[in-house]
Amino acid sequence: MLPEGLDLDRLVASALLHNGSYERLRWLCDHVGGRVAGSSAGEAAEQWAAETFRGFGLEPRFEAFEIDAWERDDLEALALGPSPWKLCALSHGNSPRRASVEAEVVDAGHGERPDLERLADRVRGRWVLCDEGVAPGHRPLHRSEKLALAAEFGAAGLLLYSSAPGNLPRTGMCAEREAPIPGIGISQEDGARLKRLLAAGSTVPVRVEMSNRIRRATVRNVLADLPGADSPAEVVLAGAHLDSWDPAQGATDNGLGAAIVLDMARVLAENLPRPRRTLRFALWAAEEIGLLGSKHHARLHATELADYCAVLNFDMTGTPHGYWIPGEQEPPALFRELAERLDGLGMDPASFDGKAGLHSDHQPFMLEGVPVVGLLGRLEGQGGHYYHAVGDTFEKVSKPGLCHAVAVGACTMAALAQAELRPMEHRTRERVVRMVTDADLLEALAVEGWRP
Ligand SMILES: [Zn+2]
After folding, report:
1. Could you count the other beta carbons within 10 Å of the beta carbon of residue 417?
2. Per the CB 3.0–4.6 Å rule, which of 16, 55, 216, 243 could disulfide with 37?
3. C-alpha–C-alpha distance, residues 23 and 77, integer Å
4. Domain limits at 406?
5. pLDDT 10s digits, 193-221
6. Which alpha helices (H) appear in 324-428, and where do they start and end?
7. Do 282 and 295 meet the contact criterion of CB atoms below 8 Å apart?
């Protein structure tokens, strides 16, 4: 049952009618732009987040930590086929500081282990060319897993071509630390041309000159609390990563999520200034290079995590239509009721997903048994198309979608904070293992060193 006295009307009105988050996101996109972890733009974004919290009457605090900050320098990638051409390409994050490679290309399909096994000796010393997908029924592979496989088979490097047409190569992290071989995102069109040439029997050497920088840098999570009046030790947290990739403005990934969490802080500070439990808002650093900010926070607060009643994560959150609660077979009663009450905003009680997933800031909390909540959403227009590519700019963000996500997020957080009894159960270790096993994530987690 929804908590007594919970005034959803006020929260929704505040989110929809007094929303300044679209304009704040515009400022972040235009004045700061791409903000790779450890860059000066990253620091400016942290400052922006702290000032925004202050503007809502909340006292921001920083959690600083050190990272190896990767910074792209030059990349030249030339296909020396029948008629040489320049590949439309972006280095992957944590690619080597320096690489100078000329090698032939092999078509490795999806770049999965069976693909490479089929090619056997032909991988050694060559570029592995593959797409971003996997064979039907297979577990999706992160680009870092594809690079690790290519390296294991002795490849000279990885050419990963984008699933999005329009000359939009994608970047993204390809290894936890400096990769043993270069990882390069190329456009779908260049990938298709290379594949056609190889299929027609041509040999296509690709020459790459790459340079990048890696240096120590300090990054900061930015947090603010609305302290709980009755149970201050119990925390309901909403978080989003603030860092982005550099080719564009990081508008949908993840200025959008950051703007949602900041505006949820405004709505709740104005309308629920004395919550029963503590409301914590977090903008995570360095998500794109390995969830480093949320992992740092989970480590730093390990002894308090048992009192984290729920962690809401917002990463590329589109117009919401349902809940994602990993480890649940069906929506818990509180969420079903919320979805029913908020159906005018597009929420649908039947729209629910309980399958665990990885690779965003909910992950460290989920693995420690903290209940995790996300919104299922739809990025309007072509938002998702420009993921990690030059097109991820402010115009791709839908203002109504942003406002709806703030409204649903704020109502959800308030319901969790005001529930009389603790609203969600912590998952036992056994249940966490079952959850990630059911979702076929054990292999991906093993790559990160996590064992059941
Ligand atoms: Zn993201």
Report:
1. 26
2. 243
3. 38
4. 8-69+216-447
5. 999 999 999 999 999 999 999 999 999 99
6. 333-341, 363-367, 399-418
7. no
Cα of 193 from ligand 1 centre, angstroms: 30
Listed residues: CB within 5 A of ion ligand 1: 253-254, 315
- Residue 268 pLDDT level (bands cut at 50, 70, 90): very high
Could you tell me if residue 1 is inside a domain?
no
Q: Are the C-beta atoms of 275 and 418 separated by less than 8 Å?
A: yes
From ligand 1's centre to the CA of 243, what distance in Å? 8
State the average pLDDT for the chain. Answer: 97
SS3 369: coil
Domain of residue 321, CATH code = 3.40.630.10
Q: Residue with structure tokens 């088979």?
A: 153
| 439 vs 368: CA distance, rounded Å | 16
What's the half-sphere exposure (Cβ side, CA atoms, 13 Å) at 166?
10
- Overall pTM > 0.85: yes
Co-location of 249 and 377 in the same domain? yes
Instruction: Please give the structure tokens belonging to residue 11.
Output: 């929260």
Domain count, the chain: 2
Strand partners, 213: 71
Tell how far the Cα of 255 is from the centroid of ligand 1, in angstroms: 9
